[in-house]
Amino acid sequence: MLCSGLWPPAATPFAADMSPNIPAFVSHCQGLLRDGADGLAVLGTTSEANSLTLDERIALIDSLPAAGIAADRLLPGTGACAVGDAVYLSRHAARLGCAGVLLLPPFFYKGVPDEGLYRYVADIVAGVGDSRLRIYLYHIPQMAGIGWSPDLISRLLADFPDTVVGLKDSSGDWQNTRTILETFPGFAVFPASEAVLTEALALGAAGCISASANINANGIANLIARLRCGEDAADAQKAVSAVRTAITRFPLVPAIKAVLAERTGDGNWARLRPPMMALDDGQLADLRADPALRSVLQ
Amino acid sequence: MLCSGLWPPAATPFAADMSPNIPAFVSHCQGLLRDGADGLAVLGTTSEANSLTLDERIALIDSLPAAGIAADRLLPGTGACAVGDAVYLSRHAARLGCAGVLLLPPFFYKGVPDEGLYRYVADIVAGVGDSRLRIYLYHIPQMAGIGWSPDLISRLLADFPDTVVGLKDSSGDWQNTRTILETFPGFAVFPASEAVLTEALALGAAGCISASANINANGIANLIARLRCGEDAADAQKAVSAVRTAITRFPLVPAIKAVLAERTGDGNWARLRPPMMALDDGQLADLRADPALRSVLQ
Predict the structure, then answer these.
(1) What residues of chain B lie within 8 A of the CB of A142, using their CB?
(2) Which helix (H) or strand (E) holds B147?
(3) What's the complex ipTM?
(4) Which residues does chain B have with pLDDT short of 50?
């Protein structure tokens, strides 16, 4: 079954020694599901996944089924520059019964041909060797420097129709999202922002995987529910878009964690691994004073 | 003792099963030293380091002292997006007695503040906890998307004077190389191209760490030797620059490996890990026919 609806890329809290705080992570994930998330896109960019060792990533994935969250509600990020690392993480996710994996391209490399990215995916599929594997391509060219073009998606869908099943579009380029939605009906496309949900769901998007869902899962889940019932949800769309606009005025991951720290009173959320930095005092004051964020700070 | 002279970023050959071919790698490294290299900047970009798992990288590093190459002639790349990975590799190198480590910034992240990159280095220094650690910053903004600014270098030199000792400038921006050379006398600066060697050594550069040294170590080592003796080496500079210009008309790493495959007759060199791709037949024909490359193809 394809993923659909709201899959927040759950943020990763760090203890005072900067190790992942597993209990706080599990609690946050449980809260997101309670707030209406359909699943959890753990170990994405917002989760600081690339700042975590492979062992830390495995431990975070495993902590959720251990806490009673069904593995089929998990969509972990498993892309890596080294095919061997991507195979290791993706195989673990497939064996665990995860809904799928969110696959970054090998982001160190720039200017590489589509054929090289095709082989990256093909080698991962072969290396995992598990028919349960479901790949959602993770398109975030402003961070990765490379991405999944429509031509490449077309070829991957033709050759791996049961495995390559969807895409998260973090490009922020609505025209790209629209092109993919229109070109590949049935492909599970997730925009990375709830601000385009009304338009995207109307064009057949599967849902959204949005950083700001960490702080507004309830609002976004309600919007999706109303849109699915065919209701006019302009007011709900406006409300979630206002939160999104407000939070993206700040460095996004630090701001998400600052809101979580404020809301929970748990200092674990205020920590980020370098090179990301917590908001400074001036930014924090601005964030606390922003009327559009009042609803998510409490 | 600081690194100086020619430190080729040794390419990594792959066996038919795409695992690193350790014997072929050791043989290549021994050949580079025989040809006049002062040391080996293994596990750099040309080495496809980011396509290798941590275990593979450790095995490649360890293979060289095991074959009788002194560890103090090794400058392995150890930068990684996760501080934990960079600490693991850097600690291994320091304990082994390597001359230093070449440190990429955490390249997934973009638009991060210098303070975040400072903390990345500070956390690695603290995490390694070994006074033998010597860090050479690896500046390659066109791949990493982030880099080491003069302001940041200045701060790192002030706070870690015994540890942060040099920089490889792969920016291809001669003005940047010149600025760093002029601003930080005594800092061991390595341009990534032998085409600027005459000018760079005159300004106090330590040497060069150049991809094309994989195929022209002898020529570059001779140029450095003559420049160090104060000779007019315009002819030698012109000759190595001609090879450099010719090889950089092709995708660089695939072309380096194609030359090594031609020269050695060893098909292990023709393989690259995705997303990089071997030269196609047309490119190979062009490469073989290039008069400027004749001297390095034999």
Answers:
(1) 110
(2) none
(3) 0.97
(4) none
pLDDT tens digits along B103-123: 999 999 999 999 999 999 999
Average pLDDT, chain A: 98
Mutating which of B18, B51, B88 best tests the A interface, going by the most A Cβ atoms within 10 A?
B51
A149: helix, coil or strand? coil
Report phi then psi at B161, rounded to 5: -65, -30
Q: What is the pLDDT of residue A1?
A: 86
Q: Which CATH number fits domain B5-231: 3.30.950.10, 3.30.565.10, 3.30.2130.10, 3.20.20.70?
A: 3.20.20.70
Domain residue ranges in chain B:
5-231
Residues A260-272 pLDDT 10s: 999 999 999 999 9
Min Cα–Cα distance to chain B from A79, Å? 12
A5-228 CATH = 3.20.20.70
| Residues of chain A contacting B, Cβ within 8 Å | 50-53, 56, 81-85, 88, 105-110, 112-113, 115-117, 119-120, 123, 142-146, 273-277
- DSSP assignment of A73-109, as one string? GB--B---SSHHHHHHHHHHHHHHT-S-EEE---TT-
Paired tokens of B226: 């003559």
pLDDT in tens, B34-52: 999 999 999 999 999 999 9
- Rounded to the nearest 5 degrees, what angle is found at the Cα of B170, between the Cα atoms of B182 and B267? 145
Average pLDDT over residues A56-78: 98
Q: Which residue of A has its CA nearest to B118?
A: A275
Alpha carbon of A229: minimum distance to chain B alpha carbons (Å)? 39
Q: Which are the contacts of A58, defined by CB distance < 8 A and separation ≥ 6? A: A89, A92
Min Cα distance B102 → chain A (Å) is: 16
> Has residue A21 got a pLDDT over 90?
yes
Q: Residue A127: enclosing H or E segment and its boundaries?
A: helix A114-128
Kindly state the average pLDDT of the residues A58-65.
Answer: 98
Say what the pTM is. 0.98
